[in-house]
């Protein structure tokens, strides 16, 4: 899997996400790249370059991310219709963040 293959877009809200296989289920899951979220998901790349995501405990020292399922803007809209316009970083900013994350794995 190349860097580009790992980049994805949420079909529901259009946010840029990283697709990684969850361990141990190996289901493909979107990972949110907003670094301000203190998540519980650790991203790892194996020797073949495939990305994996694993839910970790609080003692894990890796930088942690959060599943996009928990942060999806569309889900917020469903919960709170009065929420203001999109507060997400721009698409370019999100892609920059994704490149930074992937280059540090
Ligand atoms: Zn979404």
Please characterize this protein's 3D structure.
- The structure is a single chain.
- With 105 residues, this protein is of the alpha+beta class.
- The protein has one domain (3-97).
- The protein has helices at 3-6, 68-71, 73-79, 91-103, and strands spanning 7-9, 16-23, 28-32, 41-45, 51-55, 64-67.
- Strand 2 and strand 3 form a beta hairpin.
- The protein is globular.
- The structure holds zinc ion.
- Zinc ion binds at residues 10, 12-13, 15, 68, 72-74.
Question: Short description, anyone?
Answer:
This protein has 105 residues and is of the alpha+beta class. The protein is built from four helices and six strands.
Bound molecules: zinc ion
Structural class: alpha+beta
What is the count of β-strands? 6
Order of helices and strands: HEEEEEEHHH
Write the layout of secondary structure elements.
Blueprint (H helix, E strand, L loop, with lengths): L2 H4 E3 L6 E8 L4 E5 L8 E5 L5 E5 L8 E4 H4 L1 H7 L11 H13 L2
Parallel strand pairs: 2-5
Antiparallel strand pairs: 1-2, 2-3, 3-6, 4-5, 4-6
Bound molecules: zinc ion.
Characteristic key phrases:
binds zinc ion, 5-stranded mixed β-barrel, 29% strand, alpha+beta, 105 residues, globular, 4 helices, 6 strands, disordered N terminus
